Amino acid sequence: MAALALLGMAASPAMAETTVSSKARAALFKSQTRVLDGRAAQQYSNSVRLQPQRVITPSRGGSLAYTGKYRGEFLDVARTAARRHGVPEDLFLRLVQQESGWNAGAVSHKGAIGLAQLMPETARHLGVNPRDPRENLEGGARYLRRQFDRFRSWRLALAAYNAGPEAVERHGGVPPYDETRSYVRKIWGS
User: Fold this and answer.
1) Which domains are assigned to the chain?
2) Is 17 a catalytic residue?
3) Exactly one of 73, 89, 99, 121 is catalytic; which is it?
């Protein structure tokens, strides 16, 4: 019995040590957390290298209203196509103004056709007849939306519409082509 009592006494200091040790570990953890929340967080926020890339979108860009003179039959068709595909209406109207000047029979020197100037291969992929003004506008709005979904930026979607999505990916933004930069500036407003 005495041996058991002695054993019990020996276990008590070990138990006390474990309790102290747990308290010490909790205190250490708390102090380390304070460092992470304080000094380390400050160092992280001051580090340019560790920060995620910032995408700066000009505030005035994309908010320009359509100011073209065209008021013909395809204006409402273009508005409807833009709404159907979740494209800002005025942005799409400015795109059509820039692409074709609202000339349904326009054909570019590169072979783009119609109001939204769809390339024949693009029109085929979209399943639209590029020579039918209504289908052309429908295809143009859908294609612009696809570019937005891909790049998550209307500015980059416009660049992809003009220069192709591969060029936007290759250059990591608006390609350094004068035509494309001018195109984006005229339609987006920056």
Assistant:
1) 74-188 (1.10.530.10)
2) no
3) 99
Q: Which tokens hold the place of 97?
A: 């103004």
Distance of alpha carbon 97 from alpha carbon 69, whole angstroms: 9
Q: Tell me if the pTM is above 0.90.
A: no
Residues 6+ away with beta carbon under 8 Å from 77: 133, 134, 137
Read off the pLDDT of residues 99-109 as tens digits, 9 standing for 90 and up: 999 999 999 99
How far apart (Å, rounded) are the C-alpha atoms in residues 22 and 13? Answer: 14
In sequence order, the 6+-apart residues with CB closer than 8 A to the CB of 31 are: none
Tens of pLDDT along 30-78?
Answer: 887 777 777 666 665 555 555 555 444 444 455 688 999 999 999 999 9
CA 72, CA 104: separation in Å to the nearest integer? 11
Looking at residue 79, its amino acid is R
DSSP letter (8 states) at residue 40: I
